[in-house]
Amino acid sequence: MQCYLTKGGYDKHLRQLRHQLMLQQLQYSQAISAYFPTDIRMTPPQGGYFLWIQLPEKVDSLMLFQSAIQHNISLAPGHMFASKQQFSNYIASMSGMCGMLPVHRHYRHWADSSHSLRPELIWFFN
């Protein structure tokens, strides 16, 4: 272990990991841009690996979360990040776990199955 740390192996590992996580974040951003409605606002993280997404006011992010989870898409409803019932039209998308790809396939499948969504969510993919 000492040899690994002193010979630069750990630094190399961290560089590779940061690069991989940056690519994943880019792929998540591209998938969200491709399959989410155009009237959203996406904020890339300043640090960390959550993409903060503002949806139109009429959207209940909890309902969106319940639909997404059925398609192996991990979204966090915005109110989880507030002490009061705020941010109900926001979601956070985690892009920093290794092995979460291919994200485009999951989002495309979710969009393709939009006909089976609750009426309140159908607008999301149309």
Automatic annotation (TrEMBL):
Keywords: Aminotransferase, Pyridoxal phosphate, Transferase
Cofactor (UniProt): pyridoxal 5'-phosphate
Domain of life, per lineage: Bacteria
The keyword Transferase appears for this protein: yes
Spans traversing the lipid bilayer: none
InterPro entries, A to Z: Class-I_PLP-dep_aminotransf, PyrdxlP-dep_Trfase, PyrdxlP-dep_Trfase_small
Protein name per Swiss-Prot or TrEMBL: Aminotransferase class I/classII domain-containing protein
Gene source species: Methylophilus aquaticus
Source taxonomy: Bacteria, Pseudomonadati, Pseudomonadota, Betaproteobacteria, Nitrosomonadales
